[in-house]
């Protein structure tokens, strides 16, 4: 049974202005905790909503979360710049449907960094939809997905500010897609193609287009005798 001090403490926190409450909630990084906070009262729900609107970075890596939950949170994050929904041990289970919903968010055009690393449910269907809207993207990690050259064409056509891209183990992309990407994204500084297989001539072509391009790992550079799988 609550005593008078419990009621007093509860009354004091309920008396906080919503903007101050949202400032406090802004420091909560656990999404399950934020979900619980939003259930306290109507004011707390509004506070959580406002705190999400101020966030410049959302990291779902390692969270057990689905398409609907991620999309709903991203739609509330009006100031978002960096989005990480990489798969980890427990993993996000995000699919092309989730990327389609995320691509409709107002913040997508302002995103500078996206990581979809290891998301095996991602194909060209979702990736093309997302990158076509993320026109200010500078850093993209799409390694471990099942994209093909179709996604690289979309990235090349839409992401002119791209500086780095990770294509780790994207075995369905080809030399044609890589050459198109580097030719279109003239600000590209780094490309990681570990776990793929390309002829040495491909990397000579990339460096011809962009001599300062950093190709990772370095064992794939033209002076290497073998291209590892």
Automatic annotation (TrEMBL):
Domain F-box: 16-56
Domain of life assignment: Eukaryota
The protein's name: F-box domain-containing protein
Entry's Gene Ontology cellular component terms: SCF ubiquitin ligase complex
GO BP, sorted A to Z: SCF-dependent proteasomal ubiquitin-dependent protein catabolic process
SMART domains per UniProt: FBOX, LRR_CC
Database matches in SUPFAM superfamilies: F-box domain (SSF81383), RNI-like (SSF52047)
Natural source organism: Saponaria officinalis (Common soapwort)
